[in-house]
Amino acid sequence: MNLIRKDFMLVKNKMLAYGFLCTFITLLFKLLIDHTVIENALVCAIGLLFSYFNTIISFEAEGKYKAGATIITLPYIRQNIITAKYLSILLINTLYYATNLLLLAGMYLSGIDTWSGKGILYGVAGGLIVLSIMIPFFIRFDYIKASNVMMLSVMLVGVLIALFSKKSTNLNEMFFNIFLIDAKYLCFISLLIVLLSYLISSNIFLKKEFNT
């Protein structure tokens, strides 16, 4: 619990700001866009972005204050340290999505908008996959190296999508078909990916050496 509290104290101000911004943009999309699939895709994309910033900021704070090197000098088991890191990031993600769902439910009950929580569920699944990919890199490498790898990966994905969109006439159809998959199945698969990521990160962290 102390380790989770430590993570919250390090990131709370930035994550409140990013959470407010992402939630505001999500509400705008819900109010201004009538096409359900496009709306779900954009809401999902904002959720992925929040998960990306959540993970980046968590490890940025640790790198800035050298918390990782300090914590291992304290009487904590390394397995507990990595467990707390995952739980703190997942808990912040959960709070963000719970807030969004409550706001969407409020909009639905007040008659402002129709109920459609699919975009949020796709965002949950996608966000879990994003942090599952990112965390092992930040555990293995220092913050600067890992963040550079993440930024280059995001740029590479963007370039590949742009290239395929020019050459493939079926890309848009494939993109829309993704959002026809049952979100519950995607969430279940993403939880399995989180578990795999946790095992990989634990193995890396148990063998990692720190310069204290």
Automatic annotation (TrEMBL):
<feature type="transmembrane region" description="Helical">
    <location>
        <begin position="39"/>
        <end position="57"/>
    </location>
</feature>
<protein>
    <submittedName>
        <fullName>ABC-2 transporter permease</fullName>
    </submittedName>
</protein>
<feature type="transmembrane region" description="Helical">
    <location>
        <begin position="146"/>
        <end position="165"/>
    </location>
</feature>
<feature type="transmembrane region" description="Helical">
    <location>
        <begin position="120"/>
        <end position="139"/>
    </location>
</feature>
<keyword id="KW-0472">Membrane</keyword>
<keyword id="KW-0812">Transmembrane</keyword>
<feature type="transmembrane region" description="Helical">
    <location>
        <begin position="86"/>
        <end position="108"/>
    </location>
</feature>
<dbReference type="Pfam" id="PF13346">
    <property type="entry name" value="ABC2_membrane_5"/>
</dbReference>
<dbReference type="InterPro" id="IPR025699">
    <property type="entry name" value="ABC2_memb-like"/>
</dbReference>
<feature type="transmembrane region" description="Helical">
    <location>
        <begin position="185"/>
        <end position="206"/>
    </location>
</feature>
<keyword id="KW-1133">Transmembrane helix</keyword>
<feature type="transmembrane region" description="Helical">
    <location>
        <begin position="15"/>
        <end position="33"/>
    </location>
</feature>
